Every structure is written in structure tokens, then in C-alpha cells.
Amino acid sequence: MKRLGMDTVKYQNQEKKCFENTEILREKNTSLPWTQKLNEETLMEIFQDNEQLGIWKVENTLQNFTPESEKQSTERPETDVKSHPARSGPAPPHQGESPTPKRNLELAFQRGRDKDFSSQEKKNIDVSNLNGSSEIPSQQVPKSEVKTSDLENELHQTRVMTLATDQVNRQLKQRQCQLKEMEHRYQNEERKRNEHLRKQEASKEKVSKLQRETTLHEDQLHYYQNKGENKMDGIINVQTQFYDVIKKLQARNDRYGLMLGNKYLELINETNHLKEQLDQYGKEKAEEMDDLTTKMKNASSKHLHLRTNYDCFMQNLFFIKSIQDTFEKIERNQKKLEENVVNFPRHTRSTRIERGQGVWWECDIEHRARWDLEEKQKQTQEASPEITEPFRKTNFTSIKIQMELRISHLESELKILRNATERI
């Protein structure tokens, strides 16, 4: 309904615009005949002026070429002059008649051409008259002098007239240019008039189309109004049904609201219970964290104790290795000494027998060797208890293996405790 109302308003506005355009075109069409009349009047005035100019030119030619001695030479121009008005001066159209502008222009061009032709003929006649006057015999000198003076006067008059004719020709050319401009204006006005007529016809067609469309829209409005009335009855029935459905839905919503309220209370109780469980779980977690922290502290203390034991054990190992090295050196030295002791008497005997020394020297050497061996044995015996006692007290290899296992076990426990703390 709203769209139809908007469409009707649009079409009414378009009709108003079309009527305004048609009124403007009518005013222009009424003004066109008046402009045409003005143009025709100006053309008639121009034609009359041209005719008067032609008459004046003919009179001037008659006045210039009327001497008695040159009647034979003037017969031809008089006949031309007599024939010229017949050619160049056609009868003006009657006031009752309305000649077309094209016909009037053609007549004006013909008159201008005839006038140019007559002026050229006049000039030729003047030249022939002068030539004839120059061929007069020498016996008639006084008459010829008189005639020459007359001819000079006539020549002066002809020159003046030629200047006047030139001016008239210029004016004619100007008038012809004005006529051409008037023709162009008239043609343009005719074109404009035709365009206005076309626009008027197109606007009339548009108006007729708009009127048809408005009638169609009015019919559609009546149709839709009737249809809308029928729909209103249907809408009223639908509204009653809709209200019934709304009442049923409200009852269902009330029931559903009660159900939701009960469920909401149950959910509140469940959330409270879950909160209590979460609190308990948090307490348990805190206790577990405390236990884990205590375990971590104990494990760290154990780890430190084991670390100190391990460091002491490593120091003992280094000390034992150094003792073993010294013991091995002592054994090597002892073996060398024993070998020297065994080989020394033989060597000394051979040398002393050769040199012739006494036996007493051998006894002295043996005594010294034995004394050296006894001292070395004492040293080894003093060092051996220091070495054997640690081996007796601690089985080094077994203790080392046990310590490594214990350290690995403690490191695994530390990793477990760290993972537990990170999760928490």
C-alpha cells in the first residue's frame, strides 16, 4: 500500500512537470508566428529598397547617355535600359499574397545579377562612345572640341556615378549578407520550432502514458484495497488464533519455569557440594605438598650426606692409589737390590782375586749388603700394614658399587619429587 501511494505521488509530480513543459512549448509556438511575420516584413523592406536602387540606377544611365550627336550610339543603351526594368524589376507581389522566403531570396539574387550586368553594359557603352568621339575627322575640330568638353563632363559624371554605383553595390552586398544571415536565422528558428513541436508531441505522449499508468495504478489500488480488506478479515482470524496460541505457550512457559527453578536449586546444591569437595581436595593437596616438601628436604639432606661420604671415599681412593704406586716402586727397588746383592759377591770376588786383595773385604761387603736388605725390609714392613689395613677394613670394590647404586636411587627419587611439585 505504501509503495502504491509513493508511486502515485511520483506520477503526479511527473504529470505536473509535463504540463509545465507543454505550457512553455505553447508559449514558444505562439511567439514563433510573430517572429516569422517580423522576418517577412524585413525581407519585404529589403526587396523594396533593392527595387528602388535599380530604378535610380536606370534613371542615372538615362541622364548620362542622352546627347543629340550620339543618338545612334545611345539607341542600344536605351533599348537595354527599357529592357532592363522588365528583367530586373519584376512586379512586386500583391499585399494579399504571401510569397515564400526562398522565392523572395531567389528574386533578389536575380535582380542583383541583372543590375551588375547592366552596369557592365553601361561601362562598355561609355568606352565605345569615347572611341567614336576620338575618330571624328579633323575638319570638324570646333564641334569636336565642344563635344569633347561635353564628353569630359559626362565622363566626370560617369565617374561620380560609378563611385555611387560601387557604393550601391557594396550596400547590396551588405544587404545580401544580411539576407543570408536572416535565412540562417529563419532556418534555425524553423529547426527550433520543429524541435519544440517534436518535444511537445513527445511530452504529450509521455502525458498520455502517465495518464494510462495512473489509471492502471488506480485500478491496482482499488484491487489491492479490496484484497487488503479481505486480508484484514483473514488477519483478524489469524490474530485470534495467535492469541490462543500465545496463551497456551504462556502456560507451558510457566510450567517450564517451575521445572527450571527446581533444577536450578538442585544445581545450586550440587555446586555447593562440589565446592566442599574442592576445599577438601585443596586441603589434601596442601598436606601432600607439605609431605613432599619435607621429603624433598630429607632427600636433599641425605643427598648432601651421601655427597660428603662420596667425596671422602674418593679421597681415600686417591690415597690408596698413591700408596699402591709407592708399594709397587718399593717392590721394584727390593727386587733390584736382591739381584744386586746376589750378583755383587761374584763380581767382587772376581775383581778382588785378580787384584790380590784379602778375604776380609768380602766379609765387609756381605755385612753391608745384609744391613741394607734388612733396612729395606723394615721399610716395606712399615708401609705394608698401612696398605693392608684399609683393604681389610673395607672391600673397596663392593663399597664403590653400593655407593653408586645408592646415588642413582636417590637421584631417581629427586626427579619424582620435582615432577610432583611441577604438576601441583
UniProtKB/TrEMBL annotation:
Signal peptide: none annotated. Residues 68-83, 111-125 have a biased composition (Basic and acidic residues). Residues 126-142 have a biased composition (Polar residues). The keyword Repeat applies. It holds the Pfam family CCDC144C. Residues 2-288 form the CCDC144C-like coiled-coil domain. Keywords: ANK repeat, Coiled coil, Repeat. Residues 66-148, 187-211 are annotated as: Disordered. This is CCDC144C-like coiled-coil domain-containing protein. It comes from Marmota monax.
